[in-house]
Amino acid sequence: QVQLVESGGGLKQAGASLSLSCAISGRAVSTCGMGWFRQAPGKEREFVASISSSGRTLAYGDSVKGRFTISRDTAKNTVYLQMNSLKPEDTGVYYCAAREPAYTTYDYWGQGTQVTVSS
Predict the structure, then answer these.
(1) Rg, the chain, Cα only
(2) Are the C-beta atoms of residues 70 and 80 closer than 8 Å to each other?
(3) pLDDT digit string (tens) for 47-76?
């Protein structure tokens, strides 16, 4: 059974940096496509970033390009989201998700971690 546990959320001021972690159990991260999503109150869930199972293909949502970086550590079976130049609109619950490499639908989700950015 695949389990994802996010950590690292918190309260930051605009312009600050924050790093999120997603620890995976039950499956090697190198066998999954991994993604980060976020949801602000009253809004739909939004794609933030993804990394392919090979680790070679990265993708970012338009609102975070140039500020956020997704990475992974296969030895630790963990995926990271480095968030720089935070803005108040980055506030939300951030979720880690995993999918089968051949599919685009994410089947496994973490419980989420809250990120709040004050102006």
Answers:
(1) 13
(2) yes
(3) 999 999 999 999 999 999 999 999 999 999
Tokens of 91: 């506030």
Beta strands in the chain (DSSP E): 3-7, 10-13, 18-25, 33-39, 46-51, 58-60, 68-73, 78-83, 92-99, 106-109, 113-118
For residue 114, give the nearest of 95, 99, 97, 88 by alpha carbon: 95
CA geometry: angle 14, 36, 109, nearest 5 deg? 130
The string of pLDDT tens digits covering residues 5-49 is: 999 999 999 999 999 999 999 999 999 999 999 999 999 999 999
| Positive or negative torsion for Cα 69, 70, 72, 77 | positive
**d(Cα 73, Cα 67) in Å, to the nearest integer?**
20
Of 111, 118, 105, 119, residue with least CA distance to 39: 111
CA distances (Å), origin 31, targets 15, 34, 39, 66, 102: 35, 9, 26, 27, 10
